[in-house]
Amino acid sequence: MTIADIKKTAETKMDQSIAAFKNNLQKIRTGRANPALLDSIQVEYYGSMVPLSQVANVTLLDSRTISVQPWEKGMGAKIEKAIRESDLGLNPASMGELIRVPMPPMSEERRKEMTKLARNEGESAKIAVRNLRRDANESVKKLVKDKLASEDDQKRAETDVQKFTDKHIAEIDTLVAAKEQEIMAV
Predict the structure, then answer these.
(1) What is the chain's mean pLDDT, rounded?
(2) Same structural domain, 127 and 158
(3) Which of 16, 24, 41, 86 is the most exposed place for a label (fewest CB within 10 A)?
């Protein structure tokens, strides 16, 4: 493995960490409805548990209401039960085959909890990026130790990896700030 491979691998993994972080941020509830909020809900379907998105169409009716349209007639009650029993604190209402999931307004205290949660997710993502930086630097040091690269190459590589790290951490900070703003907006 060359220094170029190590740098490319580190940057790719950092990009993947950012993607995972964005996915986690989507699950944090804001004042507005978001179909991704229901992604974690599992529904019993012919004896096995499957994600809600595999048994129903999840869309937005308006900024505060998610609609769930089951693909099979008998699934409405099971989907409604799964949403009600999830730890999201949502209360779905059936209207024929359509299930409406209104988003209750969040209290100031709940908004602050959600911003804390967003910051914690951001910190976890930063830790993941820093661990990737450490791994890349250790790999470069191993190449130098095995006499496959010079110490000058090591310094250049560490500088480049630090630049990737700084860029990704700045992106995480930006995403956290945007999410906090979204949560605190009434």
Answers:
(1) 87
(2) yes
(3) 16
Task: Give the pLDDT band (50/70/90) at residue 186.
Answer: low
Largest CA distance in the chain: 72
Do 92 and 43 belong together in one domain?
yes
Flag whether the pTM goes above 0.90: no
Q: Using CA atoms, how far apart are residues 186 and 184, in angstroms rounded to an integer? A: 6
pLDDT tens digits along 112-122: 888 888 899 89
Residue 123 and residue 85 share a domain:
no
> 83: number of CA atoms within 13 Å, CB side?
28
Please report, for the domain that includes residue 141, its CATH number: 1.10.132.20
| Separation CA 76–CA 72 (nearest Å) | 8
Tell me: do 127 and 164 sit in the same domain.
yes
The residues pairing with 45 across neighbouring beta strands, listed in sequence order, are 48
**162 and 133 Cβ atoms separated by less than 8 Å:** yes
What residue numbers bound the domain in which 118 lies?
3-27+107-184
pLDDT one-digit tens code per residue, 13-40: 999 999 999 888 887 777 677 787 888 8
